[in-house]
Write a structure and sequence with these properties.
Order of helices and strands: HEHEEEEEEE
Helix content: 10-25%
Shape: rod-shaped
Strand content: 35-45%
Largest sheet: 4 strands, antiparallel
Radius of gyration: 49 Å
Number of helices: 2
Length: about 230
């Protein structure tokens, strides 16, 4: 009995010794690796889709899908109102003013005396004073006066010529002439919209009542602008 107990104790001692040696010689678990930053680069052919936040600046070419709906908004003012839309005509223009004068009867030659060097006819120029090529003359306002000596001016006509889109190239615009209280001075003033081509004639024509022994002369000023051709 004592011999068996001794054997069991010896076996238990060897077992405890083996466990102790196992703990001393076991390999420790590997430590967790330290974090390392990683940079991912996408080629231009495969960009990463992003969603714009707030105001985003866009540079370069931007493709738009056909038939896509695009909203365009203007920044409102401090009162929340959108800015007004202003449409401007950017056709190049040059202002002008021209005087025409016509006389008859005993006062023939008064135009050169009173309004030199005005004549009853003037040629629309081809170029402006600074060398720009004229496309068209646009007459917007006509003002003037007549002085009569025994005659009465009952009609003033201004002829203009425009071949483009005009079945009748030369037209005669009637200028209203005021009745003269004194029988001497009459006036005319009219806002209009007449067109004339470069190289065409502007002619002032006067209709009077009376005889050749009497006379009248009228002088008018034309103002407006000329459209020019951009090189």
């Amino acid at each position: 009995m004592n011999g068996l107990l001794r054997i069991l104790l010896v076996a238990l001692g060897f077992g405890l010794l083996a466990v102790a040696i196992g703990f001393l010689t076991s390999t420790p678990a590997p430590a967790a690796p330290a974090s390392v930053p990683v940079t991912v680069v996408n080629p231009a052919s495969a960009p990463v889709p992003t969603a714009a936040q707030g105001t985003t600046n866009i540079a370069g070419n931007v493709g738009i899908v056909p038939l896509a709906k695009i909203n365009v908004a203007n920044v409102p003012d401090s009162g929340g109102n959108p800015p007004p839309l202003v449409v401007r005509d950017h056709t190049p223009t040059q202002p002008f003013h021209i005087m025409l004068c016509t006389d008859t009867g005993i006062v023939a030659g008064s135009c050169q005396t009173n309004f030199p060097p005005a004549n009853s006819t003037v040629v629309v120029p081809y170029t402006t004073s600074d060398g720009q090529k004229i496309e068209r003359m646009v007459i917007e306002n006509i003002t003037g006066s007549c002085e009569s000596f025994g005659q009465q001016v009952f009609q003033l006509l201004l002829s203009t010529t425009l071949n483009e889109n005009s079945p009748t190239a030369t037209l005669y615009d009637t200028l209203p002439v005021s009745a003269s209280a004194s029988g001497l001075i009459q006036t005319t003033s009219q806002q209009t919209r007449l067109y004339a081509e470069p190289g065409s004639l502007l002619t002032l024509i006067m209709g009077v009542t009376g005889t050749a022994a009497d006379g009248s002369f009228c002088g008018v000023i034309l103002t407006g602008y000329m459209t020019t051709i951009t090189p």
